[in-house]
Phosphoenolpyruvate carboxykinase (ATP) (Psychroserpens ponticola), 538 residues
Amino acid sequence: MVNHTQITKTIALEGYGIKNAKIRYQLSSDELHDITIEKGQGVEVSSGTLAVNTGEFTGRSPQDRFIVKDDITKDKVWWGNINIPFEPNAFDKLYDKVVDYLSEKEVFVRDCYACADPNYKLNIRVINEYPWSNMFAYNMFLRPNEDELKDFSPEWTVINAPGFMADAEIDETRQHNFAILNFTKKIALIGGTGYTGEIKKGIFSALNFILPVYKNTLPMHCSANVGKDGDTAIFFGLSGTGKTTLSTDPDRSLIGDDEHGWTNENTVFNFEGGCYAKVINLSQEQEPEIFSAIKRGAILENVIADDKGDVDFSDTTITQNTRVSYPIYHIENIKVPSIGKNPKNIFFLTADAFGVLPPISKLTPNQAAYHFISGYTAKVAGTEAGVVEPVPSFSACFGAPFMPLHPTEYADMLSTKMKEAGVNVWLVNTGWTGGPYGVGTRMKLKYTRAMITAVLNGDLGVYNYDDYHLHSVFGVAQPRSCPGVPKEVLSPRTTWNDDEAYYKTAFKLSNAFRENFKKFEDNASEEIRRGGPQRYAF
Ligand code: ATP
Ligand code: MN
């Protein structure tokens, strides 16, 4: 039988302006699972996992993410089309409408926190319209114990009302959905979208301002794990490049799969208490740890199941971005608490759909700074009329949508820290080999894992020119051999069997790098600029 934790504490929401709500405070994961099904908002699939549809939105909506421009943010935030300003008055008006909408309703409230290092703990109260969104908060944030709950005082509040639709003309939003951060009021206000990722990335964005500005700590969009000797590795990368997949490694303890801070006390800590894995084409054979984490307590999003409740992970009817959230303890090998020492190795993951970057290469400190500011990956453009072309996608710090400050502020902090810690930095192409998307194939996960394991075991050695050769276009150092990986896979050019086509495409990418970097040139030193590709097509 389900064992429900008894929470005797009660809370009031009048202080937020939410009146006469039926408050469901701190329900257990089991209760929220059951309530979601009772309400017809989800189903239980054959693994015992709750499956929900997030509704109209199955991904974040970056164009509807705003930051209130106030005394705290006005001179610090890098305003533009990533950090879109919102007027304080307009926020207050919209806030009143949202809390009015939640009044008289049943609402699900959870007290939790972010940041596994006690020195950086951020107490959070999450107020949800839907039970499954509240269960997501249980999975993804850190869970206070009974003692911590007794005198819990929330610092930030997330108010999440997917059913509330803004009126763009009156409410000064772009359309009916919005996610707005208010640093003066310490509120993340989310409406018109049920996509749960907005909740976790809202707090992530807040921390990406708070930690560097007030706590001298570098926030990072990366995963992290630690080996038996206590050596930490971190993996930066944009969505779909392999942060979650590659950090979930049976031989290394998982610290976290997405958001971390690097302190001045030489530690790396997880912001979160759970993982949010992509499940598109997930297989038990390829990713057994993540597959096993999908059980009661986890939440599957936007997947399709058959009559028997068996999920077809290859089904993209609803979206490509099918997901599962689970508390980190669903993974067997984890670091408790989620804190590691200074990283020894940093991986920049990129899914290069042009298929021209080496599957693994070593970067100099200047190349590392250059690639961090660039934040390259590639997307595969729509299949309209059979045209499938890779499109380069650059996102500074491998996470621009979540970074309120100018990218060079994070890059400078990272450079300083990398120098102090003497880390090795590796660029890993988890994308295409043997040709671009449509011609080549995705790099075998088995090979990527072998390359990472070789680095972590010291089998790719230190920087020794005899063991590496420099890529003629990108200037990065490619290892000549790697245990568990066929030699020819290590050199992208040899996988193409067409030198001319290879270089043409490589130049296309190096030009895209140069074009993108122009906006950072004024802020980047000569050395960092030289960390870019060595050759361009004219
Ligand atoms: P997000 O920031 O959106 O959470 P992520 O960086 O965590 O993204 P993953 O969830 O790890 O990305 O997604 C990587 C996807 O690519 C997985 O579905 C994985 O199975 C697939 N994949 C295929 N080949 C590789 C490879 N060689 N290396 C890593 N992932 C691969
Ligand atoms: Mn991930």
